[in-house]
Amino acid sequence: LYVEFLENIENKSFEGINEAGLFNTTFNKKINTILSGNCIVIDKEKDTSLQEKLVGFILKNFKDGAKLAKKLQNKYLATGSELFQANYNKLSEFITKEDITYYKESSPGIIKFMFSVVVVEIAWQLNAIPYLLSKGIVARAVKHKVFHDSLTYCLLLIIYPLYLITAFFIVKSYFSIRLDVAFVIITLLSASMYEACKKTIHCFWKRKKLHIVHDMLTQLFETGNG
Questions:
Q1: Conformation bin of residue 177: beta by default, left when phi > 0, alpha when psi is -120 to 50
Q2: Which residue, among 205, 2, 190, 216, has the nearest Cα to 101 in the 3D structure?
Q3: 224: alpha, beta or left, given left = phi > 0 and alpha = psi -120 to 50?
Q4: Which DSSP letter does residue 98 get?
Q5: Distances (CA, A) of 204 to 12, 93, 95, 186
Q6: At residue 142, what are phi and psi to the nearest 5 degrees?
Q7: Which residues 6+ apart lie within 8 Å of 119 measured at CB?
Q8: Distances in Å between the alpha carbon of 83 and those of 89, 218, 225?
Q9: DSSP character at residue 143
Q10: Using one digit for the tens of pLDDT, what is the confidence trace for 4-39?
Q11: How many CB atoms lie within 10 A of CB 11?
């Protein structure tokens, strides 16, 4: 997680502009120029839910997701791109209908799938208490659901270390010191592997559908499509 600060907008950029309307217009144009080079723009005149779905899908599943998503959106916003927009919407509708949230170019094998199932189960059993506690506190304290995920994560930064310390001493009081250390290590490892294993399980079950997604993505990224 990182924050990148954009360039400052200096007063000298607006020298000689005294009329309020002209100042606002110049300021908005400058903001638009700065943000358009760093943000992924959604066309509000078209179906925003389809655009948000596909942009989120690309950002989540590709290492260079920001670059790819921006490339797709720029093409989507370009004039005379009706064919591209049709293919874009078709892909977004497909992953929405089939409930596809993760993507891998190569399908995971049965051994990797079974290993992932075990890891996810262990991770859930060992980490459910701090997660559900944090989520429950946030749900009671905050009405707006849009903030729930970020606040749950922040609360976990406090609750999770306390949970590990408490669990360590509880296990130690009943078992040997080797077992309590092993408990903490397994808890941390399973938590760190949870998301990747969850992705593997999803891609294994959706492997036939992901072949279709792969073909549709390839068509979208082809030069001159639309």
A1: alpha
A2: 205
A3: left
A4: T
A5: 57, 21, 15, 24
A6: -120, 125
A7: 190, 193, 194, 197
A8: 10, 15, 7
A9: -
A10: 556 666 666 666 676 667 777 777 777 777 766 667
A11: 7
